[in-house]
Design brief:
eleven-stranded mixed β-sheet; ATP binding; alpha/beta; AS_sf; glutaminyl-tRNA synthase (glutamine-hydrolyzing) activity; EC 6.3.5.7; 11 strands
């Protein structure tokens, strides 16, 4: 492994906020210090695509003024936060990592972004990602790949690689990413940070540039479980602008995560420990399971036999929805328009051909085929039926256990370019994460040691629908065993 590493751990969120509230730390000074680090580190890691410095410093000044007056501050007062570029911010470039949206500046804030700012967060800028969140390595961005801060010759994972790398390299205290088939959990594992997949409907998708609408979810990255729980508590909840957001009450996840894991029943599915799992990853995860046993958890085997159908099911459902969602990017409504077109039809064709990357085109073609007349029943409809079977399996499993633990990814972070020529090998990097995406349940990736070469390994803790609190309790127990 190269010795070039940019790992730096930020102070815990609660400590920074307390310093700002007491006046010992100015939010404006904190923001400036983060911009100085971004200026030094970003040329190598390519984490940030754009900075929102004017907006951030105005927010920091507002927080400092409120603190000076002794006003009650929000839970994220003065905390520097980065935002994945698939979430819109009013007036800020929002490209989704694609050339087709270059120059697009939306007229409104995503609900999750607005909630962060209402809680006092200082929004530093927009983070690099795979184009339209399609990828498992963050090598598909039109603006170049993100490098892993642990080892810059390796990928940070995708598609939220920028969001994971920003936290691992202390270029933000916490960040927001999105997860469609593992795009928060897998990069969290590769970069050695905590990443959270909320239950579908737990966080509003209003203002999220869609990839696959029935799978897309917004969630936090942090360097510890409690900070991630705090961030989820801020962005969770019903939103009238998103018909799929749930009115289910939001727990105080930070407080819940402090309750300990003693007595919880933990399921271990044999299907996640079969052929293809790296021996060192297996060893670290089995050690993590032993630490849960030592913390008073009851370990039980569970069976999820339809897991082997998850990858083909996911790539049928996700690509079908992507082909429909991306039809709107045609050179007329947003961003890029081809200058070399004599007719309207040519303008549509050339704009999409010139501005979409290879992976996006591949998925649009796969999805269009799956939805076409004569193939819908054989592919898309069948995939939806298998998805129901996968969801039912998890429901039955959670009747017997409180949480399920698995590896997050079959390997540690791989090298840049190692899998770009083999899309199927790249898709298999999501093999342990797509089932939770299809089932709509929640999950947390928590660091669980490292390989002999120093590459992070993540454990995935899955919880039942809207039971993020239990997943956080288990993740805290794993985290405590590592410290």
């Amino acid at each position: 492994m190269t010795t070039e590493s940019y790992i730096e751990k930020p102070k815990p969120l609660s400590e920074l906020r307390e310093g700002i509230a007491s006046g010992r730390q100015k939010a404006a000074d904190l923001a400036v210090s983060y911009y100085e680090r971004i200026e030094r580190v970003n040329p190598r890691l390519n984490v940030y695509l754009s900075l929102t410095k004017e907006r951030a410093l105005a927010q920091a000044a507002k927080v400092d003024a409120a603190a000076a007056k002794g006003d009650l501050l929000g839970p994220l007062a003065g905390i520097p936060v980065g935002i994945k570029d698939v979430l819109v911010m009013q007036g800020a470039p929002s490209t989704a990592g694609s050339k087709i949206l270059k120059g697009y500046r939306p007229p409104y804030d995503a609900t999750a972004v607005a909630k962060l700012e209402a809680a006092g967060a200082v929004l530093l800028g927009k983070l690099n990602c795979d184009e339209f969140a399609m990828g498992s390595s963050n090598e598909n961005s039109a603006y170049g790949p993100v490098r892993n801060p642990v080892d810059t010759e390796r990928v940070p994972g995708g598609s939220s690689g920028g969001s994971a790398a920003a936290v691992a390299a202390n270029m933000a205290v916490v960040t927001l990413g999105t997860d469609t088939g593992g795009s928060i959990r897998q990069p969290a594992s590769f970069c050695g940070v905590v990443g959270v997949l909320p239950t579908y409907g737990r966080v509003s998708r209003y203002g999220l540039i869609a990839f696959a609408s029935s799978l897309d979810r917004i969630g936090p990255f942090a360097t510890n479980v409690r900070d991630a729980a705090t961030l989820l508590g801020v962005i969770a909840g019903h939103d009238a602008n998103d018909a799929t957001s749930s009115p289910t009450p939001v727990a105080d996840y930070a407080v819940e995560s402090d309750k300990g894991a003693e007595g919880l029943r933990i399921g271990v599915p044999a299907e996640y420990f079969s052929e293809g799992l790296d021996p060192e990853v297996r060893e670290r995860i089995e050690s993590g399971i032993e630490s849960l046993k030592a913390a008073g958890c009851i370990i039980k085997p569970v069976s999820l036999p339809h897991t082997r159908y998850a990858i083909p099911t996911y790539y049928l459902v996700a690509t079908a929805e992507a082909s429909a969602n991306l039809a709107r990017f045609d050179g007329v409504r947003y961003g890029y328009r081809s200058p070399s077109s004599a007719t309207l039809a040519d303008m549509y064709r050339h704009s999409r051909d010139e501005a979409f990357g290879a992976e996006v085109k591949r998925r649009i073609m796969l999805g269009t085929y799956a939805l076409s007349a004569g193939y819908y029943d054989a592919y898309y409809l069948k995939a939806q039926k298998v998805r129901r079977l996968l969801a039912d399996e998890f429901i039955r499993a959670f009747a017997e256990v409180d949480a399920i633990v698995t590896p997050t990814a079959p390997t540690p972070a791989f090298k840049l370019g190692e899998k770009t020529g083999d899309p199927l090998a790249m898709y298999l990097a999501d093999i342990y994460t797509v089932t939770a995406s299809l089932a709509g349940i929640c999950g947390v990736t928590v660091p669980c040691g490292a390989t002999k070469g120093g590459l992070p390994v993540g454990m995935q803790v899955l919880g039942a629908h809207f039971n993020e609190a239990t997943a956080f309790r288990v993740a805290r127990a794993v985290e405590a065993a590592q410290s």
